[in-house]
Amino acid sequence: MADDPYAVLGVTRNASDEDVRRAFRKLAKELHPDISKGTEERFKKVTSAYEILGDPQKRSAFDRGEIDGRGEPRHNGFRHYARGARANAGAGAGGAGFEEFGFGDIFSDIFGASTRAGPRTNFTAKGQDVRYTLEVDFLEAAVGVTKRVTLPAGGTLDLNVPAGVSDGQVLRLKGKGQRGAGGAEPGDALVEIRVRPHPYFRREDDDILLEVPITIDEAVLGAKVEVPTVTGRVQLTVPKGTSSGRVFRLKGKGIKSAGRAEAGDQLVTVRLVLPEKIDDTLAYFFSEWRQKNSYDPGRK
User: Domain check: are 159 and 209 in the same one?
Assistant: First the structure.
């Protein structure tokens, strides 16, 4: 029993001509033997189905039950028309039949002008893009790094991860995707960057956020405190009488993203950390100090 051309193309019986054409274009691109291996039989069925549904007269004849899914007549009264239609549709190796039913235009649209003579002539089609995920450390993303990666299609590549790349950003490697058909250019490799979190740095746009603990004497007397940045350690001046939670800005010590003239800043929040054990000397000192000084931090 012949296949139902509507089922083969995946359209309903009330589908418009444009719906039929669109369905055929999609399937032809997926199943063309010059692109996909092992799809020749399905491609033939799709092409045969479109020979019927792509021609208004033959589609009407099929809907009335005058021809079957192969275009064969169901009764003698239609035999003459069916023979003539098949002759036009087949038209031999020259492919004129494909032009009659619009195949030339469809394959030209999909694969390029070189296919206008028929679906099995040479054509060109750009290769498909491939996707890849690459994990990098926080500091590698901040300052840039070169990573040797294995591409999905095989082979290795030294990938330059630019400074300031963000989590989820996609890098495009031109020409590293699947090969093109008919000598066309290959597709691209799209590498999505995943940035691992850092134990104490956080990123906010191009700024770096960091918390630094300070001792009670550093907060009271002031001090020079060494703090890390994404490019190395620097000295932070903590003024005398610094309260916990105060934020210091280190200009230009953040992320320098592509396209920006200047790097972001590093924002350092100091947190007062008391000793694990309050000895008698410290307790006595603050007891005496509290009796002699009035101090209200603004509690309500």
Answer: no
pLDDT digit string, tens, across residues 196-233: 999 999 999 999 999 999 999 999 999 999 999 999 99
Which residues in 146-158 are b (16+ Cβ under 10 Å) and which e? eeebebeeeeeee
SS3 284: helix
- 135 and 85 share one domain: no
φ, ψ dihedrals at 208, nearest 5°: -110, 130
Would you mind telling me the total number of residues written for the chain in this entry?
Answer: 300
CA angle 25, 17, 13 (to 5 degrees): 100
Q: What pTM was computed for the model?
A: 0.55
What is the rounded radius of gyration, in angstroms, for the C-alpha atoms of the chain? Answer: 36
Number of domains in the chain: 3
Domain carrying residue 239: 202-292
Q: What pLDDT digit, counting tens, does each position of 125-155 carry? A: 777 788 888 899 999 999 999 988 776 656 7
Please tell me whether residues 184 and 157 are part of one structural domain.
yes
Question: Helices marked H in the chain — which ranges?
Answer: 5-9, 17-31, 40-53, 56-63, 79-90, 96-100, 103-111, 138-143, 216-221, 280-292
CATH of the domain at 209: 2.60.260.20
The full DSSP string for 61-104 is HHHTTSB-TTS-BSSGGGHHHHHHHHHHHH-TTTTHHHHHTTHH
Statement to judge: residues 147 and 96 lie in one domain: no
Secondary structure percentages of the chain, helix, strand, coil, to 5:
35, 25, 45
**What type of residue sits at position 68?**
D
Find the CATH number of the domain harbouring 109. 1.10.287.110
Beta 223-229 vs 207-214: how paired, if at all?
unpaired
Is residue 298, in this structure, part of any structural domain at all? no
- Alpha carbon distance, N-terminus to C-terminus of the chain: 88
